[in-house]
Amino acid sequence: MSNHHTLQLIVVIMKKFNTILAFRAIFFFLLALASPSITYAQNAGSKVSEFLLTQVHFGNASSGIKETKIDFGDLENLQENDIDIENLKNLVFENVPTVFHRRGQSQNGSENLPQRLITDAASLSTLEIQNGNWRTVKLLQIDLTQSQDKTLVRLSPQKLKSFSNLSYILIKSSFPLTKEEVSQMISGYEDGDLVLLYQINSNF
Fold this sequence. Notes:
This protein is an alpha/beta fold. It has helices at 3-15, 19-51, 85-93, 179-184; strands spanning 52-57, 66-71, 98-102, 105-107, 116-120, 139-144, 168-173, 195-200. It has an 8-stranded mixed beta sheet with strand order 2-1-8-7-6-5-3-4. Strand 7, helix 4 (179-184) and strand 8 form a beta-alpha-beta unit. The relative contact order is 0.12.
């Protein structure tokens, strides 16, 4: 039976009892029809913010700055890339050994052979201090929570001497960023030295 005929049947039956009940039945019937599309839209939006990363390619004045979208929610349609996608996915989204560096102090500092270090922008200067524990870190994630944090991120090989095996830098921001702004945060690297990524995600 079609939705139109079902609706007509509800009206005919309920009018025999109570007009108010008839309108209530119609309201909940229409609400039930609308619910699946609303849920789908919410899921689609969350997928984009949670699984979409953007790679910024180190450029120069002549070539300009380029970027590539990496959507881990749609790996089947992912463009060809020199990045080890499976390795990057594990480092960003999986439960790998991680050190949290907040307000200049490290939590989980006893973590053996950490592969990921997550820090706030204000604590970056303390990572310049030589530390042998960071030699196994492959991904450095920097969380930006307010606009002025952008001016605190100025990284170079000289400042990250302790990160001898660093492969990825991920700038995770709660506010909009451009590829030009992200590119200004890093200097002294070329394509192939490491992979620079950023993500706009207000849910952290």
